[in-house]
């Protein structure tokens, strides 16, 4: 068992945002869409795989998957979301969602996201936020970035071997600001 693993509830959606900035990871990360072993290693294919996982989890409308994938790739082509330190946060604001939703993907091979440090990315958090609610987008981004700047969190995320371990880590990180 990983140091962060524990038994937790399985609720993936709450109507109240209670994190420090008003939002927790568990408020918007769709754990059913986690991909602990991405099948692809090319940036655009990774984005498509994570959007597809959100679609299969019922978080996107039937006709929205391709539109959202194209919008995220278009956004990524404008400026890389590879932040360095082996993480990327591809994101877009889109009318297809009513509240922020995210999927986590992990790669053992590494992905060329044209990251700032020119190193491969191993952990991806893909975020889609409502186009008409920039405040919720900023809160979700702040939550994600707040966790990703912590070396311990990044390390544990990269080590997660199952979707359950990803969920355990994210829930633990919500409760423990030191993680």
Can you offer a commentary on this structure?
The chain is α/β, with parallel strands linked by helices and 179 residues long. The chain has a single domain, classed as Mannitol-specific EII, Chain A (3-Layer(aba) Sandwich). Helices cover 39% and strands 17% of the residues. The protein is built from six helices and five strands. The protein has helices spanning 25-28, 43-56, 65-78, 134-148, 151-159, 163-175; strands spanning 82-84, 87-88, 91-94, 101-111, 121-130. Strands 1, 2, 3, 4 and 5 form a five-stranded mixed sheet that branches. Strand 1 and strand 2 (87-88) form a beta hairpin. Helix 2 runs antiparallel to helix 3 (65-78). The longest helix is centred in the last third of the chain and has 15 residues, at 134-148. The protein is globular. It starts with 24 loop residues before the first helix and ends with a helix. The model is unreliable at 1-20 (pLDDT under 50).
Provide a compact summary of the structure.
The protein is α/β, with parallel strands linked by helices and 179 residues long. The chain is 39% helix and 17% strand. It has a single domain (28-175), classed as Mannitol-specific EII, Chain A, CATH 3.40.930.10.
């Amino acid at each position: 068992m990983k140091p962060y693993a524990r038994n937790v509830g399985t609720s993936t959606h709450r109507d109240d945002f209670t994190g420090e900035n008003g939002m927790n990871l568990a408020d918007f990360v769709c754990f059913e869409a986690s991909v602990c072993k991405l099948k692809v290693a090319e940036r655009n294919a990774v984005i498509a795989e994570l959007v597809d996982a959100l679609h299969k989890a019922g978080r996107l409308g039937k006709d929205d998957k391709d539109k959202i994938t194209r919008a995220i790739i278009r956004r990524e082509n404008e400026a890389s979301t590879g932040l360095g330190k082996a993480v990327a946060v591809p994101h877009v604001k889109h009318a297809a969602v009513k509240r922020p939703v995210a999927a986590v993907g992990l790669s053992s091979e590494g992905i060329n996201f044209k990251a700032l440090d020119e190193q491969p990315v191993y952990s991806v958090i893909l975020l889609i936020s409502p186009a008409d609610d920039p405040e919720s987008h900023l809160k979700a981004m702040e939550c994600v970035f707040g966790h990703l700047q912590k070396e311990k969190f990044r390390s544990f995320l990269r080590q997660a071997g199952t979707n359950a371990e990803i969920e355990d880590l994210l829930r633990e990180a919500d409760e423990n600001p030191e993680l």
